Amino acid sequence: MSDYSYVFNAHPSFIDQIYQKYLADPSSVEDGWRAFFQGFDFGNKPNGKSNGSTSGVSAGLNQEVAKEFGVLSIIHGFRSRGHLLSTTNPIRERRDRKPHLSLSDYGLEESDISRVFLAGEEVGLKNATLGDTLDHLKKIYCGNIGYEIAHIEDRKKRAWLRDKIENRKLDSSYGLSLEKRKRILEKLNGAVIFEKFLHTKYIGQKRFSLEGGESTIAALDAIINMAVGEKVEEVVIGMAHRGRLNVLANIMGKTYEQIFNEFEGTSIPDLSNGDGDVKYHLGFSAQVDTTSGKKVHLKLVPNPSHLESVDPVVQGFTRSKMDLLYDKDPDRILPILIHGDAAVVGQGVVYETVQMSQLRGYQTGGTIHFVINNQIGFTTDFEDARSSTYCTAAASLIQAPVFHVNGDDPNAVIFASELAMEYRQLFNNDVFIDMVCYRRHGHNEGDDPKFTQPEMYKFIDQHKNPREIYMDQLIRVGDVEANLAKEMEETFWSDLQARLDMVKQKPLPYEYQAPEKAWKKLKKRAAAEDFDFSPPSGIKKNQVKLLTDHLMKVPDGFKPIGKVNRLFKGKQKLLDKNQADWAMAELMAYGSILLDGKNVRLSGQDVERGTFSHRHAILKDEKTFEEYNRLSGMSKNQGEFFIYNSLLSEFAVLGFEYGYTLANPDALVIWEAQFGDFYNGAQTIVDQYISAAESKWQRMSGLVMLLPHG
Which residues of 576-608 are buried (b: 16+ CB within 10 A; e: fewer)? Predict the structure, then answer.
């Protein structure tokens, strides 16, 4: 695809000067300008006769160039800001965000609408009038998907996205096959009827329904099915309470009977090892069949009510699995974070988590962020919830693309979701899907939203659900028979009723999420005698010598700064007396674990050197700046020593390290606070996960927190 962005800020008179040079000698102008003029032969326009001589060209060129340049610029404008005119909101009129996409903004007039402009070729239109070009651009960029991609600096990524966006089928099917459209209908039917059934059978009970945003289920289904074809073997999901039961039932494979069992309250959880938690906080794991016949492992991470706190936990868990099982290949494991619009823009941990996504110690190969944007946070309108235009402002931190999509258009939602999945696998970067929808009930099913949003809920009460809208669309284009909707609803409802009747007659035992495979071999519960047991922790004399010898040398040719040499001399004097300082003893301890074949991971602010210049685990060559890890290369069978200076964050980094431990009990995972009392910047992780997870969710962690310096 051509890209003439280099001319968008040029004045027409300047372009005229360069064009005169081009006419005299094409090789005298830069390659970009030469390509521009070759692509637009202003001397032979479809609008008129050949200009003839060079002097004739010069006389009319300024106006001609200005018009063509204006059309090119408006094309660029639609690509950059067309999303501000997109029809993504199913229940509200779009606010005027001043997109500056009128003809007058580009030096064009109504009289130009019927004129042919060569600039239309930029979007694949030959001999197209300005009107044709504008209609084409509006179909692409101002429909039910708004593409926010202009902030991406990488030209390759932008070109790839534009190619996918501008070459899709421009009808309501978005190029999706009939088989896929029927799959979407099936998932919507399950999502909608499941919520209706619970609403009827358990009136007033909290379930934090997905009603209004049921297209989420079809989107997750599409992402997972596509992921399996793109090498993914495991999908790790983090989400809050909104829609969680629906995801558990219709994506994760938790049986309807298990969920009904929890609503009935007839199964009693085993509280001998903790207090348990509410059903919409629980995690789940399962092997699930996909449409291709392949299996994929799905994991929903348990979390508390503290919104978005699970985000870094998911990232840490994913990174741990990459290191442990997937040969550090991010293409084999996919993290998905499901956000609410108020939380994703309001909670600082989101920004911390997004910021770490491209850092070497924390990257996971890209996360799909799916925002269930129901335009309200409990009772707070979005006007009071953010200063930014969109709730996905965090995406700009890392130049992640954002696809804003109308939740009432399932085909658009699935197109955006599959595009996001493909982008993630190709570029290993984060991508955001902002699905604009609504919340049919209050924050919970016992809350009345009309106290604070009476007008909005007057409209919502009369609004069809996504399944009804989609069914009408499929019937209209002849994809399905008109009687199918009633048949599907009756069949599924009957199945749910039969399962509920079964549970009422014979309650099921309460089931906790199974631990990770590596945790299963560990003793589940501690007994009194365990606290009197002291496992051997010493190391043999020959290991001491191996470790000290290794720690006191550097590779041949490696030149650290002079202060390091003086530091080493001081340590050697202590070793000669059979003594060691704290820093030496610490590295020796890590080294002994590494020699046992176990991995050690240490992260936190300034941990490589140590806040007070004590550790020096990583040395740098003063000339080449090459790094040397002092605990590498001791033995070919040793474990890996991962040590990373973290970003200046406590909440997300501690959450990440906690998540890392959930997948690997055999690694020593350490988070060091720069000062001991700085841990309270991560108080939510300490209180809700580290302290309480075993009691609430029966999830164990071997995380070590170093809280030094008082």
Answer: eeeebeebbebbbebbbbbbeebbbbbbbbebb
Q: How far apart are CA 12 and CA 476, in angstroms?
A: 49
Q: What rounded mean pLDDT belongs to the chain?
A: 91
Shared-domain flag, residues 139 and 283? no
| Residue 655, both tokens | 């959450």
Q: How many domains does the chain have?
A: 3
Both structure tokens of 317: 């868990």
Q: Clarify whether residues 586 and 687 are in a common domain.
A: yes
616 and 556 assigned to the same domain: yes
Q: What element of type H or E holds 373?
A: strand 368-373
- The answer to whether 269 and 275 are in contact (CB under 8 A) is no
Helices marked H in 428-581: 454-462, 466-476, 484-505, 517-520, 541-551, 562-576
Q: Where are the alpha helices (DSSP H) in 388-465?
A: 410-427, 454-462
Q: Cα dihedral angle (461, 467, 470, 472), rounded to 10 degrees?
A: -70
Are the C-beta atoms of 377 and 385 separated by less than 8 Å? yes
| Residue-level pLDDT at 39 | 64
Packing angle, helices 215-228 and 410-427, rounded to 10: 40
Structure tokens at 514: 């199974």
SS3 call for 227: helix
Cα distances from 123 to residues 1, 112, 171, in angstroms, run 8, 18, 17
User: In this structure, is residue 317 part of a structural domain?
Assistant: yes
Task: Report how far apart, in Å, the C-alpha atoms of 611 and of each of 100, 338, 650 are.
Answer: 50, 36, 15
- The answer on 127 and 243 residing in a single domain is no
Together in a domain, 420 and 537: no
A 10 A CB-CB count for 128 gives 21
Other Cβ atoms within 10 Å of 326 Cβ, number: 18
Instruction: Provide the 3-class DSSP secondary structure of residue 25.
Output: coil
The enclosing domain of 366 has a CATH number of 3.40.50.970
pLDDT tens, residue by residue, 392-422:
999 999 999 999 999 999 999 999 999 999 9
Could you give the CA distance from residue 157 to residue 160 in angstroms, rounded to a whole number? 5
DSSP state of 396: G
Q: Domain for residue 164, yes or no?
A: no
Give the integer Cα–Cα distance in Å for 242 and 520.
31
DSSP annotation of 129? B
Residue 321 has pLDDT above 60, yes or no: yes
Residues 401 and 264 in one domain: yes
The answer on 547 and 441 residing in a single domain is no
Per-residue tokens: 632: 């590498």
CB of 72 closer than 8 Å to CB of 8? yes
pLDDT at residue 5, rounded to an integer: 53
Indicate if 408 and 350 belong to the same structural domain: yes
Residue-number span of the structural domain to which 690 is assigned: 530-706
